Amino acid sequence: MRALAERFREILGDDGVITDPVRLRTYECDGLTVHRATPGIVVLPGTAEQIAEIVRECNAARTPYIARGSGTGLSGGALPRADGVLIVTSRMRRIIEIDVANQRAVVEPGVTNLAISQAARPHGYYYAPDPSSQQICSIGGNVAENSGGAHCLKYGFTVNHVLACEIVTPDGEITWLGGGDPGYDLLGAFIGSEGTLGIATKVVVRLTRTPEAVLTLLAAFDGIERGGRAVSAIIGAGIVPAAIEMMDALAIEAAEAAVGCGYPEGAGAVLIVELDGPEAEVRHQFERVETICAEAGAFELRVARDDAERAAVWTGRKSAFAAVGRISPAYIVQDGVVPRTALPEVLAAIDALSADYGIRVANVFHAGDGNLHPLVLFDDAVPGEGTRAEEVSGRILDLCVEHGGSITGEHGVGVDKSRYMTKMFGDDDLDTMQLLRCAFDPMNLCNPGKVFPTPRLCGEAPGVRRGVHPLVASGEAELF
Amino acid sequence: MDPKLIDDCVHCGFCLPTCPTYVLWGEEMDSPRGRIHLMRQHVEGTPVTPEMAGHFDACLGCMACVTACPSGVRYDRLIEETRAVVEREHRRPLAERAFRALVFATFPRPRLLRALRGPLRLYQASGLAPLVRRALPGPLAAMEALAPELTARVRLPRLVRARGPRRAVVGLLTGCVQGEFFPQVNSATARVLALEGCDVVIPRGQSCCGALSLHAGRPEQARRLARRVIRTFERAGVDTIVVNAAGCGSAMKDYADVLADDPAWSARAAALSAKVRDLAEFLAELGPAAPRHPLEITVAYHDACHLAHAQGVRAQPRALLSAIPGLTVVEVPDSAICCGSAGTYNLFQPGAARDLGDRKAANVLATGADLLVSANPGCTVQITSALARRGREIAVAHTAQLLDASLRARPARALLRGGRP
Ligand SMILES: Cc1cc2nc3c(=O)[nH]c(=O)nc-3n(C[C@H](O)[C@H](O)[C@H](O)COP(=O)(O)OP(=O)(O)OC[C@H]3O[C@@H](n4cnc5c(N)ncnc54)[C@H](O)[C@@H]3O)c2cc1C
Ligand code: SF4
Ligand code: SF4
């Protein structure tokens, strides 16, 4: 490690290499603090060339390396290793180009999601995917996690808005993915790969025209049940809102405590419905949404009249995760997906779990696409509560899988959920994914130990499974 | 460092983009989240290392992180406790210690500060320690440049009577730096209050409010100064104490916390804190009575951290200014990011202070405004000296001075003269 640090100092200067133990520890975790490990070395590069050199040095020393953006990930994807190097992009935050004519922007990986929208706004554009962490999460992290947000119901996830990436491959080469070249969609494979297929060093994103009109409705219901009915009815009517978000009573309580968002009193659930697009269409559809909500039993409908009121409606929702800190000493943010139609059933089951275990669960979710974010609350000072909360959190994922959903909607697998991968995929599926991973990273040094339960197949990596992979045996795939 | 307060941090990182040192250096250890992590390390048994102390020292105490934090982390209290721990447990190099001692002996004493202006200049020239040499020329030179002639000292009466029907009786804090270097702001404040129907009581012999000591990990000195201020204003017998310097106002609102553990004083401190209002905050609560005359001018409003972040006063000054006919308020880009002044920060962390000053200067110039409104003397000094480094000048005035000009039908020209506040 010491020799490696010396080499890094030559590449980056003293200022870009951290080896002091106290400093190193501040990088021990991302937004998911239950997993911690102090990195061996932290480097703060400024250019793609520097990252390429760092990766080559790591390869030569057989040392694992892990990319980190802003460290807001919620699945431990950027969890460091004591025997590894953490490559942090927080100094690579230049917006290289806002190309209005071609509706795109070229940015460095450490640029925050929101900074892109802010730079594009004067031109009448913005960057559509809007994770709640948008003011701080990096675009590199977004690419790695294929992050989404409230408005992805209509506009799609990161993968729909990234046109190309310059990456440093695990071989230490700089190359471009995407850009509409014929052949395999390698960019598609890279997006959502959680930092296991290389490090993004430039990202070309699509800019979306700011809609002509935006209308936002806050509907208050006595409970989740009725709110859920409204959601189904809206989608059933063929309306595609920009966003439909729901929060339950506990989540509302937290947001109220944090930001005083002033949601209707006594609401057991609130629904935020936002429509955007051409003025006339939005107005027309908005009326229908209002009617539908009223018919579903909304006891109060509030229309945001201007940007300030709209922002007020959204602050409550966007701060909900962090706000839960106000009503509970500790909590787990879960992320799962269920088919929209299964929502009421799954929510009832979560309620039952919560009662069984004596663990409170607050619910915040992207109701439009069935992406749940149950917040499992506990007090780590009470012996056993942490474990019970963990169990509840795991059981919620079981529920999602049982109902034909997924163990993650947008926060990724990371270290936290790798053990659940076997619940969704069989050995053959996982092995096939490993083949892809090995094609990019044959030495298994690029963010190893993430996503997959146990490393298999890759060259010398220890395998629990013996024998030849069926795809290799049949000649359909080969090991690189 | 209260572990409970540390535990409130959920490590979400929402505070990072508004933290000036994170904006500058992009390092976790120099972000609020990282600093709280360092505090946790200390609470869990890691001694204060020089590296750790360095990251705490580099914190401006701007409290932008408090505004940004959705979990309600009391970083203000955490850093205050932490600074005291650093002062107790960390032994600084000799030159640094000497320099700090000099600054803390000087700043909280208005009269000494004034008397030392000349000698300090000499000391500067002598180049005793490299640290001193680096630190002094910037901010102190700027103070020299900005300060009115020594003879031009304005002496405020003990009582300024309300014009027209009396609506309130208020006390006015004159402040050390404000009083010594920007006395014209204090006279404008007193006039505006009087024109709006307030009897203004200005107690003699006011001491420093203790803000600098409090924010530098010297709680004993801070408590001593706080007790004096409390005594002074108790004697004044006023319901409200109006403060026109952001840093002083935020410190005085904190007296309740500062003296919470002192049984003889806690109740008195809480009572005093409850009376403190920033000038803009107070005028907004009071509502306008005096007629406003037009000022044809475009101003950029600068958010002083100790006003915007520490006291949550953002809307009121903007509203007061916008209500002046003819006046246009424009926003400074990245207004939530500190200008780098931060009390004594530009003395102890000159590099970072300069970089932040440069950024602020560029953003201020980008507005194209005729005049910059700044409600904190430290910010005024910092921004003007940053502009001067670029060979630029902008007139700077306090909210009070604009209101004063409008209420007294003075021309906007008078405010713009010579680029001085
Ligand atoms: C309060 C809160 C709310 C959130 N809300 C949402 C939400 O609404 N929607 C959502 O999708 N997510 C959300 N997240 C999760 C998180 O913000 C996203 O996953 C985000 O994309 C992570 O970005 P980051 O820069 O913090 O990445 P990090 O946490 O630093 O890293 C995440 C992963 O990306 C990899 N990585 C980072 N940079 C690169 C790079 N340049 N090249 C390759 N790999 C890289 C890392 O190795 C790691 O695996 C939320 C998080 C928090 C704390
Ligand atoms: S007080 Fe200011 S400088 Fe200090 S951590 Fe908070 S935001 Fe950063
Ligand atoms: S915003 Fe608050 S909770 Fe989040 S990291 Fe910063 S201090 Fe901690």
From TrEMBL, chain A:
<dbReference type="GO" id="GO:0016491">
    <property type="term" value="F:oxidoreductase activity"/>
</dbReference>
<dbReference type="InterPro" id="IPR036318">
    <property type="entry name" value="FAD-bd_PCMH-like_sf"/>
</dbReference>
<dbReference type="Pfam" id="PF02913">
    <property type="entry name" value="FAD-oxidase_C"/>
</dbReference>
<dbReference type="InterPro" id="IPR006094">
    <property type="entry name" value="Oxid_FAD_bind_N"/>
</dbReference>
<dbReference type="InterPro" id="IPR016171">
    <property type="entry name" value="Vanillyl_alc_oxidase_C-sub2"/>
</dbReference>
<dbReference type="Pfam" id="PF01565">
    <property type="entry name" value="FAD_binding_4"/>
</dbReference>
<feature type="domain" description="FAD-binding PCMH-type">
    <location>
        <begin position="35"/>
        <end position="210"/>
    </location>
</feature>
<dbReference type="InterPro" id="IPR004113">
    <property type="entry name" value="FAD-bd_oxidored_4_C"/>
</dbReference>
<dbReference type="InterPro" id="IPR016169">
    <property type="entry name" value="FAD-bd_PCMH_sub2"/>
</dbReference>
<protein>
    <submittedName>
        <fullName>FAD-binding protein</fullName>
    </submittedName>
</protein>
<keyword id="KW-0274">FAD</keyword>
<keyword id="KW-0560">Oxidoreductase</keyword>
<dbReference type="InterPro" id="IPR016166">
    <property type="entry name" value="FAD-bd_PCMH"/>
</dbReference>
<keyword id="KW-0285">Flavoprotein</keyword>
<dbReference type="InterPro" id="IPR051914">
    <property type="entry name" value="FAD-linked_OxidoTrans_Type4"/>
</dbReference>
<dbReference type="GO" id="GO:0071949">
    <property type="term" value="F:FAD binding"/>
</dbReference>
<dbReference type="InterPro" id="IPR016164">
    <property type="entry name" value="FAD-linked_Oxase-like_C"/>
</dbReference>
Automatic annotation (TrEMBL), chain B:
<keyword id="KW-0408">Iron</keyword>
<keyword id="KW-0813">Transport</keyword>
<feature type="domain" description="4Fe-4S ferredoxin-type">
    <location>
        <begin position="50"/>
        <end position="81"/>
    </location>
</feature>
<protein>
    <recommendedName>
        <fullName>Glycolate oxidase iron-sulfur subunit</fullName>
        <ecNumber>1.1.99.14</ecNumber>
    </recommendedName>
</protein>
<dbReference type="GO" id="GO:0046872">
    <property type="term" value="F:metal ion binding"/>
</dbReference>
<dbReference type="InterPro" id="IPR004017">
    <property type="entry name" value="Cys_rich_dom"/>
</dbReference>
<dbReference type="Pfam" id="PF02754">
    <property type="entry name" value="CCG"/>
</dbReference>
<keyword id="KW-0249">Electron transport</keyword>
<keyword id="KW-0411">Iron-sulfur</keyword>
<keyword id="KW-0479">Metal-binding</keyword>
<keyword id="KW-0677">Repeat</keyword>
<dbReference type="InterPro" id="IPR017900">
    <property type="entry name" value="4Fe4S_Fe_S_CS"/>
</dbReference>
<dbReference type="GO" id="GO:0051539">
    <property type="term" value="F:4 iron, 4 sulfur cluster binding"/>
</dbReference>
<dbReference type="InterPro" id="IPR012257">
    <property type="entry name" value="Glc_ox_4Fe-4S"/>
</dbReference>
<dbReference type="GO" id="GO:0019154">
    <property type="term" value="F:glycolate dehydrogenase activity"/>
</dbReference>
<dbReference type="InterPro" id="IPR009051">
    <property type="entry name" value="Helical_ferredxn"/>
</dbReference>
<feature type="domain" description="4Fe-4S ferredoxin-type">
    <location>
        <begin position="1"/>
        <end position="29"/>
    </location>
</feature>
<comment type="function">
    <text>Component of a complex that catalyzes the oxidation of glycolate to glyoxylate.</text>
</comment>
<dbReference type="InterPro" id="IPR017896">
    <property type="entry name" value="4Fe4S_Fe-S-bd"/>
</dbReference>
<dbReference type="Pfam" id="PF13183">
    <property type="entry name" value="Fer4_8"/>
</dbReference>
<keyword id="KW-0004">4Fe-4S</keyword>
